[in-house]
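Hey team,

Filing this mostly as a record. A colleague (T.K.) asked me to run one chain through the structure pipeline before their review meeting, and I want the input and output archived in the tracker in case anyone asks later how it was produced. No errors, nothing strange. Just documentation.

Input sequence:
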Amino acid sequence: MPRGLVRYYVLESLSERPMSGSEIMDEIERRSEGCWRPSPGSIYPLLAWLQDTGHVEELPRDRSGLRRYRLTPEGKKLLQEERKVWKRMGGGVGFFPHPWGPPWLRLPPERAAELRRAMRRVVAAFLEAAGALGEKTSEEALKSLCEVLEETAERLEEVSKELRRGKG
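Output structure:
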């Protein structure tokens, strides 16, 4: 993840409602459709820093005993600044921006989700094949895997060229 992205997502989460660290992790995982779940080691120190700097405040514990946090006015200002940064980098301003480039901005959310699901499937299939290759390496299997990857890359490059020419 790009530097600063965890802070942005924590601030976005807390802008919607007070949450505990575990609720923030759950929310980010849910919103990313399971692509990413930040670790407690990234969330809790960040919440402590945000609290120390006056960007969040801890609410009194409820019956469940959870420590929930909410944005302060300073935290809301920081979130507005973060949104500007991610927008300049090409990301959206919604909960889960894609700071890796403007093409994501032109897709309706349901189509972007469809594309992410397809990409997860490709990555999962590759990792599965690579794992199997590691268990039983053969020249034939390695050649086959490389051919599939080369064919996939070539086809994606063709689609990209067609899209750039306006034929997609």
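Quick notes for T.K.: Confidence is low (pLDDT under 50) at residues 98-102. Residues 107-164 form one domain.
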